[in-house]
Amino acid sequence: MFISKSRAVILAAVLSFTATTSSQAQTPYRLPATHTNQHRELIANQKPLSAPSQKVLEDVKKREALENIDVFGSHWESQSVNPYGNSVSIPAQKEINVEDFVMPVPGRVTSPYGWRPRFGRMHRGVDMSLSVGDTVRSAFSGKVRLTKFEGKGYGYYVVVRHDNGMETVYGHLSRFLVKPNQRVKAGEPIALGGNTGRSTGPHLHFETRYLGLAINPAAIIDFENKTTHREVFTFDKNSYEKSQHYGPAKVKSRSTKFAKSKSKKRTTASTSKKSSRKRSRR
After folding, report:
1. What is the pLDDT of residue 56?
2. Dist CA 184 CA 137 (whole Å)
3. What span, in angstroms and rounded, lies between the C-alpha atoms of 105 and 221?
4. CB 100 within 8 Å of CB 140
5. Cβ–Cβ contacts within 10 Å for residue 130, how many?
């Protein structure tokens, strides 16, 4: 009698445990709120691609595959950083797949893209910190177009044309690790960092170009978080042209003001000389 009661109790406990386990298995697990908040702040508050954005990315990939036939055939033999010049028509907008990006160096940006009033010229890329001999990697997959030396500018530099139609430039290097026409993958070593050419210290000069036009790399890349802002970058010709004319226009107005001031001083000095001559004649 006692044994049968014990069996009954054990059976009831087993059934109760099974029911509880089954109930817990059916209830979906939810991450704590703290994790959700951290995820929102991660990578500059980027969120996973929604369905429409994913479709956009797929469409860009398909179009890229079709266009790749001409990517490495057009203006390939040029020895210039901008091989296209004025020989191509620039579209008003262009969606560019940048999802396979890898940071060229892990260093921080020390000098941004833009007009440099001190030197009176455009800085068409960003400068990134490194030490001489540090590894420089290809930002995207593609094919090496140039490995050259320019004493008064880039120093030793590499130009890579990518599957997405863009080109990237890597300047002030100390050594090449690749040759022209060599295929490279995103993140593959292409050179060693240096301090060659017009440089005031070891750093990497890094440019992102589309059809020869130098785009602000920060418009594509979130350097702080070492990733791209989005999987697809939309090039806008109108915004690009505005950014190009903003800096030089301001400097031009200052130089004009300076020229007027200088001219005024000359006129005043000339008038004063004439007056003194008249007085001496009297």
Report:
1. 62
2. 10
3. 13
4. yes
5. 23
